[in-house]
Amino acid sequence: MVGASDGNLFSRRAFAQYERIAEQPIAIVNPRSPIVHGVETVARCQDVEGGIDLALMLTPQRFTIASLRDAAEAGASAAAIMSQGWAEEDEDGRVRQAELVAVAEQLGITLLGPNHLGFVNLWDRSAATALGLNLPAEPGAFALVSQSGAVGSSLVGYASRHDVNFSFVVTTGNEAMVSIADVVDYLVDDEHTKAIGVFAETIRKPATFIAAARRAAELGKAIVVLKAGSSELAARTAQAHTGALVGDDRVIDAMLRQEGVIRVRTLEDLVTIGNLCAHTGPLKKSGVAVLSVSGGACDLIADRGQEVGLDLPALSASAYSRLAEVLPPYGHPQNPLDVTGGALAKPEVWRRGIEVMADEQEIGFVGIVTSLPTSGEPQRDMTFQVVGEALRETGLAGAIFPQLDQDQSEYVRQVKAASGIENVLPSVDRFTVAAAALSRWSTWLRERVAPVGAHEADATSARLASLVPGAAVSEYSARGIAIAGNVPLVPASLATDAAEAIAAARDIQGPVVLKICSAEVAHKTELGGVLLDVAGDDAVGAGFEALTERARQAGVNLEGVLVSPFRKGGIELLVGVTRDPDWGLVLAVAFGGALVELLDDSALRLLPVSRAEVLRMLGELRGSRLLSGFRGSDAVDLDQVANAVVAIADTALALGPDLESFEVNPLRVSADAVEGLDVLITVRASS
Amino acid sequence: MVGASDGNLFSRRAFAQYERIAEQPIAIVNPRSPIVHGVETVARCQDVEGGIDLALMLTPQRFTIASLRDAAEAGASAAAIMSQGWAEEDEDGRVRQAELVAVAEQLGITLLGPNHLGFVNLWDRSAATALGLNLPAEPGAFALVSQSGAVGSSLVGYASRHDVNFSFVVTTGNEAMVSIADVVDYLVDDEHTKAIGVFAETIRKPATFIAAARRAAELGKAIVVLKAGSSELAARTAQAHTGALVGDDRVIDAMLRQEGVIRVRTLEDLVTIGNLCAHTGPLKKSGVAVLSVSGGACDLIADRGQEVGLDLPALSASAYSRLAEVLPPYGHPQNPLDVTGGALAKPEVWRRGIEVMADEQEIGFVGIVTSLPTSGEPQRDMTFQVVGEALRETGLAGAIFPQLDQDQSEYVRQVKAASGIENVLPSVDRFTVAAAALSRWSTWLRERVAPVGAHEADATSARLASLVPGAAVSEYSARGIAIAGNVPLVPASLATDAAEAIAAARDIQGPVVLKICSAEVAHKTELGGVLLDVAGDDAVGAGFEALTERARQAGVNLEGVLVSPFRKGGIELLVGVTRDPDWGLVLAVAFGGALVELLDDSALRLLPVSRAEVLRMLGELRGSRLLSGFRGSDAVDLDQVANAVVAIADTALALGPDLESFEVNPLRVSADAVEGLDVLITVRASS
């Protein structure tokens, strides 16, 4: 503990945590006080006999680099830096932080922080942390990573009130060197850690995070993330207090979804769901059953369950009749099941209920609503006893919880331990959200297809890469690239005079669309550069002249005029790939047209994507029923749509690092055809 | 206490509650045990000296009626009936319950229940209840009504963990006679009650409930409702355990919105928001400020705040500079405000923050994020002290809360009492939801227009009423009624032969629409009875013949063919009034077209409605931006749209009790006109 002092609150906390939790030897470094926290100090790290491994730096910001050199001299390979006044402050602070990192790299020291509250490893009993003192000392299966120290302290306080134990708790602060992604990457392979919870304001090192998430999926370990900054206001706020740009929340949301990471909205859910997943692991069957002493709770679970997508399967006929035998005459066998107040006097109803649910084809998890035990109400202890036995005997995963949020008393912990029940959740509401998340994650794991690897260079992509333009590109050139990438497009001819346009239109044998074609015009419509539903030689000829005249007036160099068949009807999708500065190419699929843009109905994924993932995206759109024949529209061939989207995505990837965006809008989808009507490619401004 | 016995859990609880809370004398009636709960019993109510006022009936179901007669003999005017086995059980139970009500009415007894847990009046200290024993005995300003007894018990348990005190707690159970609406109606006028919380599976007696809600609004008392049954599954479940049909949740939701009732989604929010409103009353200014020791909490409040519509005004320039003076260099003045860890050592930052926020034009409520006090951390007590003083001095309403859910310890209650802070909320998340609800309710109260009274019979409505058809009605007749009600419609002529149709079309001077007109056809399109965009004498003549032929083939009697101008462009609204069996006429406004129906974008209100309320409905539609000129569409005259909708609503009301539905679909809305293109009226099948 470098710079420890009795007058410093964080120093006192850090020493107290060390005493509560840690087993490794410690030295206190303070050149001015011979005794700190009751321990004899040394003046420098170099004075510690046998050297040191890790420096917990409580020094004021301005002494940090000197202390770091001293620690390195003493053999330290790591340092956790508590001080503030770095990148979170201002531009000068960012410069100071960069300097700190440079020095650490030169010294071979791994830095945690600055501006954080350290970390603790509960299994190895090492603690270099000023986190809240109620951090549970008993080791567990859930690892917690929090960018914010204050939030981390509150999270461990909540954990202590709900009997949640940790394998690790790590705060990352400014992440000058070690980021959340690095910590998650480490924790995924830790044998004691079965699930990981993350509170993040930003996710740095995308590739590391994604690789770790994939390994976690392989191992059946859940990652639960509360990512702040979904609102613009929060994005601004987060930047103010940690200096971190939060990134595009919609892109990060797509990435989390794609990698099976559970995203939560509240801190309580982060702890509750993470710890539940650590105990249950993935469910074998994703359906959830509920047994409750309160009919009202059944209603609330059904209502909230619908909001959050909880899968509550209806009971089989056999379950119905088996339950009818044990319920009082006013009971009604169903799921959620009101076991009625009678269960207080007759706890065997619980046992039978659990046995019946365990035999159901689709049910893999059961929630039990009951009052938590208090001394002097033995029938509640009995409920725990019977439920614990029934869960053990049937092997069904389950949780028990009261109706409203409640901390776990010492008495509850005793009864729980005696009954062998693992999961006591805070309330009906937390259960509903947690069970839905656990169930959805379990389904995702089962249905998961191996993620698509990095895009491999093959003959096609090599050919595509050679087509990448050095500058802006016309629609005609963009079409050539798309066609080379097997993207289905409406036919088009490039006419350079009226006669060619008329000839092309005659070949089409029906009304046509005329569009100006120029590398200098990305938005043709705004220029009046598109004519729809043009029929007859005269009209086509006149149209050609009108378009070239408009281009002339706008001072635009024209490649020519594109002549395509005019299409009517069908559904229009927008399929676009754009480059996110952090996360690379991002695919968006949305319904076209002003109305749906208004309603903000789109699905995003990072590239590359599999066909299965594209099908999932289409299913996420609120308007997805339109594709399967809603209100008389013809059902479309979803496979064909997915193939077209994958072709667009793969082509974009093949075009290499200079591609800025690749958009097919609209991709017209009907019962008999899927074809892009327009293509737009933009490239990075050449440097 | 009739039928009390030592062996009955509910009897023991009821007696214990009596002893904890009540001051009125009690008699225990049990013909078989001379002593129950340590008290000498009497055999019959009639044996109680001086008679009784109220019978708390713990008797088994089959003895209820005999006991009721005995209680009436003894002078009781009210009875609370705990037993199960009534309407919640089956058809026989419903018959038994009806019989019970008939007997009670004949005896002049008011019934609470059956199948409930009684009630308690904390100010008058009378308790006839078997609710959970942790019901706080100290009287308060918040009244709680729960249809479910088990939920009621859990709610009072939560209240006791969060220092919430009640004026009344009432459970209503099967509501054989006294319903939630009756109880709310009573509580609104209770002087001690400042806000009312309701857990309901069904809301009976709509008129009573609405009248009570309006009186509550007049008095500035909030009503907070958790209504179960928003999901289909819950609707089925609730019916199973209370025998109550939950009603159409969307209609009830519209009614609650219209009457300024705060609807919540969780039991915790019910208690938290109800109690908060009881303490603050309506805010003078609806903006909310946040001061926090944790930057992470600021982000979370911003994110969740956006989801739930929390109004967090940006700071004025003067607030910015005043805050910059007290913050450390790495602080950033904004709302939500991270006061930084420095505030721990320098609590004056809290005071200044509150003073600055109180001076802001739009801010009427402040939330303070800090750890709750524990003994041995005096700086936390100091935070409470300073915040309490600053709130008192500035008169700003405020609440203090930790980051994650936490029960209130005895120590917290002491520090809170000493600091004079009224509102300690459970967590950041509960605060965000509660502050948004309080703020929205306060705005609603300020902007509220006097509710439209019962529709008054005037000359127009008398004339309309005389037009009400006895049976099905053709579009032509429906148009006549709509026009009499000042509903703007597209012009139309009824042609009975081709020559008339041609003449009508010539008058229109443009393409026309031809529609078959028959009282026997509600859905013309399905019959192929509509021809759009018909131009020229020949086409109109042929169209007339084709339509009459289709009607003949379908065996439909035709009044004639309607000839109207063909309209293109504009936005189509659906405006429909239908009759709900419980709540009467309900107005729905939605965007037209398959896509929006798919996305389920509509707003509902009970009739009558004011113009202001209709404008609010239009604003609720997700697509409302379409009306104000989104993406190049012309902005429409919202007042004109609202007038048309009000005319439709008022016409429907004037048509009297036989009207089943009145629909104008589409109501075409463009920059220059608002007109209905089609009208459909249906009436109740004549009895």
TrEMBL record, chains A, B:
GO molecular function list: ATP binding
Q: Name one Pfam family in it.
A: CoA_binding_2
- Which residue range or ranges hold the Succinyl-CoA synthetase-like flavodoxin domain? 139-275
- The residue stretches assigned to a coiled coil in this entry are none
Gene3D superfamilies linked to this entry: ATP-grasp fold, A domain, ATP-grasp fold, B domain, NAD(P)-binding Rossmann-like Domain, Succinyl-CoA synthetase domains
Where is each CoA-binding domain found? 2-119
Q: What is this protein called?
A: Acyl-CoA synthetase
Q: What organism does this protein naturally occur in?
A: Subtercola boreus
Q: What is the lineage of its organism?
A: Bacteria, Bacillati, Actinomycetota, Actinomycetes, Micrococcales
